[in-house]
Write the structure tokens for this entry.
Amino acid sequence: MGFTTLRAVMGFTTLRAVMGFTTLRAVMGFTTLRAVMGFTTLRAVMGFTTLRAVMGFTTLRAIMGFTTLRAVMGFTTLRAVMGFGCLAQDMHIISTDGQVLAGVQQWNENETYSLYISDRHGNYLSPALTFVRTSRSLAGVLSMDVYKVNGISGVLLANTMEGGHVRTFISFNQGQTWRLLTPPASEPHCSWASCSLHLHLRMSESPYSPDSITSSASAPGLVIATGTVGPELTNHNSRTFLSSDAGNTWTQVRYTPGHRIFGHLGHHSDWQLIKVDYSSLFSKRCVSADYQPWTLLNQREPCVMGRRQTFRKRRPGSRCMLGVHELKLLSSESCRCTPYDFEW
């Protein structure tokens, strides 16, 4: 009759009782057996240890999720398998706005930390990116090269350092996936395999000097930063770059980083603060004709963080002044869920 016909006639349950699980697995193969029985039943029959040996830890973690895996294996075993050994003083909280962003120094990291992101309740942390570059101020305060783009939910920038090479990555889904920054179109000799845009993500310790990167909730999607184009980030030949679409594409603004004047150092080493009023540069306040809709994309994909969001932005060339409290988000609709959107 053949196995396929026999299974159709007898049914899977009867066939399993007659042949036994081991023989059935040898005939059908693990992948088919998992599709027929389902992961939960297969785990109950085979046991967690055997299932882990067959599927591998990485696949098992992707299916079960970090939280469930931790409950089944226990933290000590999970730490040994993942190669994760940290002390309480090795954790650095980056942000608690919504989900918790934290830096944890693992046993194989010296000058870097690993970025961890919590679930939406903030109860459990899962690894998002390893070998994130860090620095310490003169006062010993730790700083990680991680930047949250203001005004756009879920967009993160981070610098990793491996083998002394620093590279910039971007995430549009709160750290679930990362990719290198696309170099400006004005770099014709920059091939994707060995060349991308890398940014300085350091925040200034002095109130009188600018940060190396800036964004504002009042201008959604607009990011200005200094950096270099090439295989890695360097401290020489830095240029200023601008993105108007939350980091998808970049253009060069000017050849050398611009400087903002905050004050003047007097003869007695006293700072004299200067207030600059830019309102005279704009002849009117913005009206409807000065705006255009802009949809947030992630590599041409309109669904970002489960939402399809459209913002109102000022048209290029419109010389008008924006209102502080004017509506920036025009619409936000839920996207159709895919298997990738669920926690297993």
